[in-house]
Amino acid sequence: MGSSSGVVLEEIPSVDLMTELLRRMKCSSKPDKRLILVGPPGSGKGTQSPIIKDEYCLCHLATGDMLRVAVAAKTPLGIKAKEAMDKGELVTDDLVVGIIDEAMKKPSCQKGFILDGFPRTVVQAEKLDEMLAKQGNKIDKVLNFAIDDAILEERITGRWIHPSSGRTYHTKFAPPKVSGVDDVTGEPLIQRKDDTPEVLKSRLEAFHRQTEPVIDYYAKKNVLAQLHAEKPPKEVSAEVQKALS
């Protein structure tokens, strides 16, 4: 928190300092939690993870973002990762685990973390376990946002966007007044290319192929919690609370 990070404590408004102190005091009594969130695109992980993060004072480790940050910051691991990417190779599992290892040392990760987007394979899960074991830690819970492909398809392929304003519609849950056009401007709505049935189908197939073994791996370790991710967010939140209590 020194001036090296460009932050001078004297310059921070008292109310912000107090808020942060109170948050830390409240957090100090919380149990440590090391969590993994697993679920297909559109299963609601993105809605729940900030809620869990705040409730349990965890840091959110999204491996994709962390890689980008490490590359931009030119950390030793970031430089290695960039070399691999420049060659068009995949970043090795060891590198990603190393980056997670580094990130876990930050003060915001003191009470634990939420891992999102990793591990995607059993080998990655094993490497992650090894790294945590070295520190005397382990994964406490894996939250599986289980949802039927058909429901996901309806959720995602029904999304339409008005590109210039960012207004979003859903053919079933929040349809425009006139089908296919924006309520305000009357301009045509588009679908993001990731939201088309074809793309979704291949993403889901890849997800199941890769992730089913990971889910089994954690089920055998008795740390898996199955959530009914098709339920409304409030109910999913309640299930999360129960799984983590």
UniProtKB/TrEMBL annotation:
Subunit-structure text: Monomer.
Annotated catalysed reactions: AMP + ATP = 2 ADP
Protein name: adenylate kinase
Stored Gene3D superfamilies: P-loop containing nucleotide triphosphate hydrolases (3.40.50.300)
Keywords in alphabetical order: Kinase, Nucleotide-binding, Transferase
InterPro entries recorded: Adenyl_kin_sub, Adenylat/UMP-CMP_kin, Adenylat_kinase_CS, Adenylate_kinase_lid-dom, P-loop_NTPase
The organism of origin for this protein: Vitis vinifera (Grape)
HAMAP family reported for this sequence: Adenylate_kinase_Adk
Domain Adenylate kinase active site lid: 159-194
Keyword Calcium among record annotations: no
UniProt keyword annotation of ATP-binding present: no
GO CC term (a single one): cytoplasm
Family: Belongs to the adenylate kinase family.
First-level EC class: transferase
Pfam families in the record: ADK, ADK_lid
GO molecular function: AMP kinase activity; ATP binding
Protein role: Catalyzes the reversible transfer of the terminal phosphate group between ATP and AMP. Plays an important role in cellular energy homeostasis and in adenine nucleotide metabolism.
EC number: 2.7.4.3
